[in-house]
User: Fold these one by one.
Assistant:
Number 1:
Amino acid sequence: MSAYNHNLTDSSDEQLRMARRRARMKLGWYLHASVYILVNLGLTTLAALQGRHWAVYPAVFWGLGLAMHGATVWISSPHSALWARMVDKELRAMQSPNKK
């Protein structure tokens, strides 16, 4: 565990709070993705019954929103693995002598 993560998680209460927050964020994304799939299946069925292809537009634009939501949950969350690795890298770079 990095020094940065160690400082953030000194107490078990803090760890539990962070774990619950992360779980809540992930559950929110799963719910968002489930609603996206169900609604877009319905819209696609409706559009197909009409012989048109308009359902692609809500699927694409809502899909972009879902992707951004996923990026905040899985990638750029302050306690995601990627974020922690980037912070550790920056800390190491700041602690090492400047190399040009």
Number 2:
Amino acid sequence: MLVETQQSRQSAAKESSGREQIVRAVLDEIRPNLKRDGGDCELIGIDGNKIMVKLTGACLFCKLASVTLEGIQERLIERLGEFVRLIPVTKSPRTGHGILRKTHRAADLSGQ
């Protein structure tokens, strides 16, 4: 039984690592387009089907940021073969705590 538990943990770790590699590859693919416009997108974390990213530079205040996030989410769903929810995160300069920034698309996905 202990062997099964260790094997399942190793399998879960490999799967998680594979998912992260796919997510990073997708972000690397779109990064040149974002940088051309003065922005970027960083992977903050993955929690199940939730993928937290941080838009930086010009992307942070861009009116089309929700469209960019929607495109990234669609590409992730295509590559991962499963539904994922892309969540934009910003850091509070005073507290350093993460703040979720809801876009119209994120609100639609959460059912609100």
Number 3:
Amino acid sequence: MRLSVDNSRCHIYGICQQEAPEVFRISQSGSLHYSRNVPAESSARARQAARCCPMQAIEISGAAKDKPRPPHGTGGGATRASRRRIVVAGGGLAGLSAATRLRERGFDGELVIVGEERRKPYSRPPLSKQYLSGSLQTEQLAFTADEAVDAQWLLDTPLVSLDVHGRSVRLRGGERLPFDGLVLATGVDAKRLPEVPLFSDRIRTIRTLEDAAVVQRAMQVARARRVVVVGGGFIGCELACTARRLGMDVTLVVHSAPLLRRVLGPRVGQVVGAIQERAGVELRLGTGIDEWRDEGDGLSLRLDSGEILECDFVVLGLGSVPRTEWLRDSGLEVSDGVLCSPTCHAVDVQGGTVPWIVAAGDVARWPNALFDTMPRRVEHLIHAVEMGQHAADSLLLGPGSAGWFTPVPRFWSEQHDVRIQAVGMPALGDDVTVVEGSLRKERFVTRYTRATPRGHQIVGAVAFDMPLELLRHRDSIGRILAQRTPARAGRS
């Protein structure tokens, strides 16, 4: 296997070193070093690094296909005749990851991938950043780590309903597609506020490539100079960064305060707010929008503080909702995504596990035993890769033999050229400690812990511009901090 890294795209996040430390290495000076010729024993880990690269900057060539191998403990059972057709519902990264793993594990039956978009899977994180700003083009968003998976693609094909016990999905037009196994990976939709006008061309969300292209064109046609971004999560903050980079006047309207408080906590959130303000973004925190008016040549927004904001365009960055509307009458538990067992198998409304259905990616809600028994959804690129792979293994193995999915979540962002990286689930922490660097200098690593019956558990770590330092914190996630022994009093 031969590989190269596109230095114009690489931001030195260090994910590649986490996946394949024998191939990739970040130096103390912060530069990336790697082996161009990868030995066979490291090829699988190098390919995984390419799949998980946040910027999709790793290119692989001259690699033979990985030899098909059954999942652990099956003794080759992955190709048994009972798995004649597997349907992957969803044409995004989690679905692609599951389909690729099924072939890698030796499944040689019919594989059908159903996607609602007209194009095959592509990287979504750059949509609100590099693509919207024009630094990445459509063709550069394609995933290149894997050769074309041997599957039948049904694109531009919405799913209408699922018959769990009849083992079939119904497609637009009434067609029925039977299956022996099913992977649910339909992802999420962009969230909207109920009071937001539905038909104004000046109010947009970004979920798909088409959405981002529409926003890009609309900003150009409207010659937008004044933009309001609604939402203070990662999507909203990144949209504000992109608009400022394009030279626009940006106001960020957020219902809570400070920015990213729910994910990173108030102390670190205040640092993000300072970075945004220093870049020229105006913040309206702890406020909402009471009235929306399209004036024809612009928008007028009245905040609940009484302030009126005049702007050319509004982009909503309010988060997401799982795409489960087509599953409402299926009998599966889909109150907040597809509820799964620890193995990624779908759970029905009676609490039973469905052996022939698994779920993966943004739409799946499952208990990560590394932390606790509470089912949660995780919406990150690396998570989609890893959960798609685990779901495929679990589908072939069955609930009785499959292992539990217990990953360390990893995600990243960039705020006006400041790299933010996280491992674990910082949102679970009730105490934050700066363990390296300084908040004031905006270069640091913070550790997030919470109290448990066993002691204080490390649940996350966040780094600002310290990717190398963050690497050593990944393996500590889930551990219980050692209790300090009180010092003995000396003799008088």
Number 4:
Amino acid sequence: MKMRHVLLEVYCENNTTEPPLCCNEGLGKPGYHCLAGNCPNVSYTQAPFELAYAGEYGVVPDPDARVGFGGDMFPIDKDEEKEVKFKELWERICRQKIQEAHDEYMKQVKEI
């Protein structure tokens, strides 16, 4: 079996008064259960260029646990070549920080 991690933004359209059976966390709290239950209120989109910490159930717990490439990170002059270079830089930094987090964790575990 092959495996791949996929980052999605999941939305609850909250367009019903009665929560569907799959709605085990209540309306407005979307998650994997919505996708698995084919909820009529669920929609989702890709989460490109995101770096995130996912908790116990693979859900990012709050906005401070994620950051994405966007907003003030785009070149001011809308230069597409610069944007490509900026995204490549973002990828390098993200991969480096992921490795640094692992290394730091392993170091601190040894101290406990």
